[in-house]
Fold these 2 entries.
Entry 1:
Amino acid sequence: MATGTRAGRSRVTLVFLLLSSATLLTLDARDFEPLQRAEEALADAISPFRSAADRLFDPVGDAWAGITGYDELEDQNRVLREELQKLEGQRILDSDAAIRLESLLDELGLPYVQDIPNVVAEVVSANVGNFDRYSLQVNRGSGDGIRNGMPVITRGGLVGRIDGDPGRGYSQVTLLTDPGFEVGVLVVGTDDVALASGSGHAEPLMVTKGLEVDTEVAVGDQVVTSGVDRSRYPPGIPIGTVARVDFDEARLLQLLTVEPSANPDNLSFVTVLLYDPLADGP
Amino acid sequence: MSTAGAWLRSGLFLLTALVLHMALFSDLRVFGVAPEVPLAIAVTAGLAGGPERGAVAGFAIGLGIDLYLPTLFGLSAFICTVWGYSAGLLAARIFRSAWWINVLVTALATAAGLLAYAVLGELLGEANLYTDRIYAVMAVAAAYNLVLSLPLLGLWRWSWPGLLGEER
């Protein structure tokens, strides 16, 4: 009898927990604000423990990465040495590109990224699960002025954007390699605003919309954020370099493969631009 | 030990496991895959404490990890609840829990749980869950949890010393 009662109780518990999960799933899918506030409060409550544990176990993670990623590090070193040599050779060309970009932005009357208030944030966790390869978490949040959608950059250029409402002391960043990530771009020296999207981990970005066939684009051209009206990204943030140009004859468009200028892997610090075009609007 | 005391110890254990998962285990990646501590926690809780405790522990750890995942809030909680309960049922009804069976069940349940997570997530509109990489993730995470299962079972026995096996 006792066993039967216990089995009945455990079934009731199961049904209750499953209904609770389903309710949370539904509310979250509908962006139910009180739930998001509760999530933030819970995460904030756990974050001191997490920060302490992060500090404690950082050396272990670093040592593990050193052991398991030794071959990869050697490869990266080799690639970096080659890139350094190329960069030396292209320094003059790069400065030329910078001048072209500067003049283009001047012409359009667009502000520089440097003028935008920003917050430097430390990456506290690249990802905690096995399915979130396109996100990372940083140790700055709403308390630092960070809001949903703000651009996240490094010295190399755009790496992603703030995803979802941040907690007081942390934010989630979606990387530009996420296949769902889209950003309006401009090839430096052209007027066509196009749309670039992520293609997955370690893959280049793809520009598949907006670039007319008669626009002159060549391999090696610089690609930056377009910053068109109400864009969530300010203009002129480097995105990458054109690695390949193809033509979509059916749609009469050019398709670009863009090698990102910022490497979203192994980031330690990022800069969040406190840029909110909707808040600045009339 | 009182039931309240056992649940308190379980709560502390779950909080510690969640923090350790985020601060330590998520960095210990092999081929880019980390151990699936939440699934291991849910399944071993079911194996050690029966279906009800498996479900509750799974729900709690799943909810905790959902706070930090970009996927829908409640998805991990749902999967971990079902897996914790099912492991408890298996342990109670189908086999006597020899240690090697528990270890094997944890590994297989991890692989199946990851697949269920990816499929359910995709059905609910989440992108990039069911990809070419899923089988590699399942294999490595299952191997990882195979190793984690014995210490976790030991820790659950520490959490529920007087209650262990009561539900079987």
Entry 2:
Amino acid sequence: MPLLYTQSLRREFGGVVAVSDVDIEIFKNSITGLIGPNGAGKTTLFNTITGLDYPTSGFVFFKGEDITPLPAYKITRSGIARTFQNIRLFKEMTVFENVMIGRHFRANHPHIVKNKLINFILGRIFVKQEEQDIYESSLKWLDFFGLLDFRDEYAKNLPYGKQRELEIARALATEPEVLFLDEPAAGMNPQETDELMVTIKRIRDLGITVVLIEHDMKLVMNICDKIIVLNYGRKIAEGTPAQVQNNKEVIEAYLGKTDE
Amino acid sequence: MLNFILLIFIYIGIYAISALGLNLIVGYTGLLSLCQAAFLGIGAYSAAVLMTAFHFGFWEAMFISGIITALCGMLIGIPTLRLKGDYLAIATLGFGEIVRNIIVNWDSVTKGPMGINGIPGPELFGFMFSSMDKISWVILIWVIVGISYYFVRRVVRSRVGRALEAIREDEIAASAMGINTAKYKIGAFTTGAFLAGIAGSLFASYNQSVAPLTFDFMMSIMILCMVVLGGLGNNYATVAGAIIIVITSEIPRLFGISHIIPPQLNQVIFGLILVLMMIYRPQGIIGRVKLNYAKILKKEILNLEK
Amino acid sequence: MNLFNIPHNELLQHLLNGLTLGAIYSLIALGYTMVYGILKFINFAHGEILMLGAYAGYYVYYLICDPSQGGSFVIFAFIISLLTAMVISASLGVFIERVAYRPLRKAPRLAPLLSAIGVSIILMNLAALFFGTKSRKFDYPIDNTTIQLDGTSITPNQIMILAVGLIMMAALKLFIDKSKLGKAMRATSQNQAVASLMGINVNFIISLTFAIGSALAAVAGIMMSLEFKLYPTMGQMAGLKAFIAAVVGGIGNISGAMLGGILLGLLETFGVVILGIPQGLKDTIAFSVLIIILLVKPSGLLIKNIREKV
């Protein structure tokens, strides 16, 4: 059974159908690419799955459970993390703090939760374990991305490529099982993109399933196990990179009809 | 003269407590609330009713009023789940007006436009605080200012404060990080209202009376000015703001020229403060103190650094 | 009291009163909605522009005529004072935008709102300092003897308010839908950057929006002072309620503001008569309507729900 799948997921804005009855299946420990021309509904699909938007109809199942009605924060807590197309870091916070926020809810140590009030009054005794966990795991993720040297910089002062990495680090700090990346290579130069490919593979090697929207075909074709193609909100093809590359409908979607 | 200065410090203290609460809502969480005066009013009236009609002692009344006001804060916090920026501001303003309307019209409890008189002072280990004895009042109120300050400081320097900051920066990103933004936003409103409720009961007990017209929109603006003037998201700047604003508005009385200077002039000054601060120094005179949570953690909690 | 045992002439009376109030709210709401449509910001000082417009009209009116004498000259003087008030309010609106809002156009959203609240407080209190806090009556330019119609009484003043309101709204709707400048305004509210690329002078359009909204507010202010009274804080409550009307109709939507104003006027009138809400709690109606609409359909009646784009 797939780790995450959708059942005729649909999102309409007024009369416009942004996502039209899409079924996708994401298998554990795979890298899935979601491609399609601009306005094909890729980001809307991401938003409806991750709870930032609600579908008009249809369902999202994760680990066998229906997560469609859950708010975004509960979906994240269930093990789905994401990044944003237009980078939504906490700009006025430091690199370290951004990752700490990602770790925020995971650090609910069982007996801290139970004794919330006592914990607040007594202060540091219980808080210590909780905060130690946040501190250490944040350091771990910063190290994973080689961002340790930047930890006290404000997020807004990082170079663009590093901001993208920080956003992924922040998402990983929530300890997800599935990571959704919305155009992770956008704005990167070829060398940075190459590094990103390595990073995404390293993330997969940690046992995390990756789903990504990307326009950089080199990246998509190189690292994805499976590719799903959307056009006008509909899924028009899916398969291995080779299968998708030779699909007539996909070529038409990208280049326009050839028989005219 | 000394009495008058003590009086000013009593008022500064009461306003500082409310302003600290508002700073938590506006400065740290980034939600513009225009009903802090209504919270003060709810606190003052609850304390007044509890102490006069039900003969509660001051401390119990203060605590219960704080809770009642906090519940009202929770109530107004609920719309904040769906409202953004200006809409929220208007909703809180509307809430403030509703509260004032209810206070004026609910005669059987609030005595309507007459207000409630004969509110007793606090008693501590047999010592009665009387309104004549301003020095003890100054001490009492500033001890509570100190506690409130420490309390807000603890909150904003903790994990909770980090979450509030993230919500202020980017609410959608915060919710995508698994933060229950609704809980924190309502929490900020509840806590801010609680502090205003405490300040309100002090206000009622010190003045020995409450009247509905005191807690109007202008009072909310005055408290907002204190927070904005010092610097949003900075507690000691907020207290400094309270000192400056209260002294500014009391200067005419201080120099005995209140009959020449009309009260409207004060309000013109508050208006000017808001406009000029926004244009020339939106961060406030002192400005926001960016807390470095990684350093706080290292130093205060994990003791990794001496 | 129940809706069904009110005699129909009385019902008609309340309907008329509600419509008159609603027409005034609509005129004010238009200013909020137009500015919000373009700048996505609540011009908190709109109520004070209304109040100052009313005072301007008042002073011009009494400068050039003595209303107690009646006659056609008084009507002429009234029209002149109405027009002067519109011009003064329009200039004031444009001036405020230049001084207090334009420098903050790129600032975080809290900044212009706080600045607007500041402007509102300054104007309200300056008015109290200069004009005094006592309320004044604006004398009717026309004979205001009540006309009895089948048990319903209507004053010429009410007829005038309804007529003026209707004409102004129709003219505005026509201007925005049909004229070239109206088209430019709509384009600017859709996307400022693109509009300016298309050769539209965005700053001019914003000033124009403030001018039109403020002129309409001046008209509403004078209508209010005729029907009710004139005092320095008159703009505060009227402004808030008109804003609520704009939200009810769907802020940013011109027709919505008109609809919302009328609805709110009717609700307030009938809320007191039918639901038996005490007169003292009348203002609570509007705010409760606001909170309910914000919770149920925050985008307003005439706008489809749109979620923030991620």
